[in-house]
Amino acid sequence: MATITSLGIGSGIDINSIVNQLVALERRPLQLMKNDATRLQTQVSSFGRMQSLYSGLQSASNALNDAKLWTRSAATSSDATAVSSTGGNDAAAGNYAVTVQALASSQTVASGSSFAAATALVGSGTLTFQLGSWNADQTGFTDKPDSAAVTVDVTATDTLQSLRDKINASSAGVTASIVSDASGVRLSLRSASTGAENGFRINAAESAAPGLARLAYDPLSGPGEMTLTQSAGNARAVINGIAVVSASNELSGVIEGLTLRLRKETATPVDIAVTSDRTAVSAAVKAFTDAYNDLTRYLGEQTRFDAATQTGGPLQGDSAVTSLQSRLRGPLNASSGASTAFARLSDAGLELQRDGTLKINQTKLDGAMDKLAELQKAFTNTDIANPANAGFTRRFAELATQVLASEGSLSTRTAGLKKLIDKNSDNQTRLNDRVERFQQRLVQQYTAMDANVARLNALQSYVSQQIAALNRPVS
């Protein structure tokens, strides 16, 4: 835009002020256009947020429509400190009495004589580890199937610490640790996994530096210095009168779809009950209610008129939004033939409030879950031949899908607003160009006028001087 600098010098008139005021009048529609652009952009943002909320309603509805939700199970224990459970979502409903007779254990041996320090040398040679099972009196050993012996080489410079690290890095199925007591430092060896078949024996072959033999453990070869502190054993339990043996304290596959964790021995049975997972259904109903309420409140805020401030929401009077509000209330106002027990959402505990939101009547909902199959129909039933028999959340999911579609209400309305924003931007550009030309024209006109006035002023001054000279008295 041209800058006005010296207009009015010749005429003495404040032409700058005149031009600026005229240009300001010409530019006044531009501010209105900017206001419109801000309003349109706010509406686009509002529809974007609305799209997100409809997507949330769609997800919450689809979660309730998922058949797996209604067949999920949950397991509870009468004494979780003794027997607990994991999984159970797909377990068949039932009751199980579990008596824990023994927990699975790992074999543990410790050096009988102590070392002065963890840095003490242990001798040299090899230690060979073999996994397997011992008989009750340690007079027989059976190698674990498909488990090869592992040999650890020990050098004359190896200390108790470095030997421990070598054993732990050897994948021998045995873990080593150093334990200090009042008499010194000892090496403790423990099978990495529980179960009778994960016991072990250790054979030592000494070389130049003696002392390694004291770390051998093989009762078949005679007594050694390593002491057995715990034998490897299987977990033993009785489930509904059936004896079960496991190398681990986790029983998988004994009850289909459920894993039991044995934590301590029991004198009396622990009851494990597998029932329908009502908690999951209740949580899904709450998530749906929250999603519906979030959308309803937002639509209300966007279309509300504040009588105190005499201002309306960004989307007040928008016919597309009014239609969306009406369609959102539709499934609430219409009954469903999907279930004879729950013809309306309120029958299932979802009650409509004065502000249009839903409130969960937990007592009603809990009672409805006593008829879980009927409740599932009320929410999820599909009947293409008769839409009146469609479940409530099935209807909401379909509504959200329609609204969010590429040709749906939100997409088409948003696209229309963006076109108006583009048109507004073009109009602002054209108006700025017109004002620029208008100012240039005014500057040219007033510049010419200023020059003419300057010439007239000069002529007037000259004429005044000549008249004054003629009127001067002759001496």
Itemize the secondary structure elements and their pairings:
Layout: H1 15-65, H2 67-71, E1 73-77, E2 83-87, E3 94-102, E4 108-111, E5 125-134, E6 141-143, E7 150-154, H3 160-169, E8 174-181, E9 184-191, E10 199-206, E11 226-230, E12 235-239, E13 242-246, E14 250-255, E15 258-262, E16 270-276, H4 278-303, E17 305-306, E18 311-312, H5 319-333, E19 350-352, E20 358-360, H6 362-368, H7 372-380, H8 392-404, H9 409-470
Antiparallel strand pairs: 1-16, 2-15, 3-12, 3-16, 4-9, 4-11, 5-6, 5-7, 5-10, 8-9, 12-13, 14-15, 17-18, 19-20
Helix pairs in contact: 1-4, 1-8, 1-9, 5-8
In round numbers, the mean pLDDT is 89
Helix and strand pattern: HHEEEEEEEHEEEEEEEEEHEEHEEHHHH
Helix proportion:
40-55%
Proportion of residues in extended strands: 15-25%
